[in-house]
Each structure stands twice: as C-alpha cells, then as structure tokens.
Design brief:
Helix 1 packs antiparallel against helix 2. The chain is mostly helical and 100 residues long. 8% of the residues are buried. Helix content is 75%, strand content 0%.
Length: 100
C-alpha cells in the first residue's frame, strides 16, 4: 500500500473538481463530438477523482522525493521566513516624529 500524501480537505477538493471535469467532459462529448479534448478532460478528471479517493498523488510524491523538489521547498521556506521577519519589524518611518 502506498503512503498517503494528500490531506483530507485536499482529497475532497480533488474529488469535487474531478467529478466536475468528468461531468462537463461527458456532457460536451454527448452533445457534439469534439476534437479529442473532451476525452482528455474526462481522463484527467477521473485521475483526480482516483487521487482523492486513494489520497495519493504521484506528482506530489515525485516532487517531495527529488532534489529539485527539496530545493524548491527550502526556497519557499526561506521566502516565508523573510516575509515574516519583514512584517514583524516596526516601520521606522511611522515611528519617527515630525520636526516641522
């Protein structure tokens, strides 16, 4: 069995969006056959439903287990830390009193 890497809320969102995509693609396919994009939409929607039910996403797993994904996560954490520090520093212009 694979290890779950998708949270409960994320899984519910994937199921909802996947079912919406499958329904929309099926409705368009029944109405008038298009150039193959409807089949692709149905396939992608079904994949998202399956990811939500199983709570495993292979793309997320690949990003988490590669060096590129780890570097990306480290960069995002550093940016978040810098933003937090900037927000916590008092604004020096607001604290200065005017000498006029």
């Amino acid at each position: 069995m694979v290890q779950k890497n998708v949270g409960t809320v994320n899984a519910l969102i994937r199921i909802t969006c996947g079912l919406t995509a499958v329904s929309y693609g099926t409705a368009r396919l029944v109405k008038k056959a298009q150039n193959g994009t409807d089949g692709l939409l149905i396939l992608m929607g079904a994949m998202k439903v399956a990811e939500g039910i199983v709570r495993y996403c292979p793309v997320t797993d690949m990003i988490d287990n590669t060096q590129m994904g780890q570097n990306l996560m480290q960069g995002m954490q550093q940016q978040a830390t810098q933003m937090t520090q900037q927000q916590n520093q008092p604004n020096s212009q607001q604290n200065q009193t005017s000498s006029y």
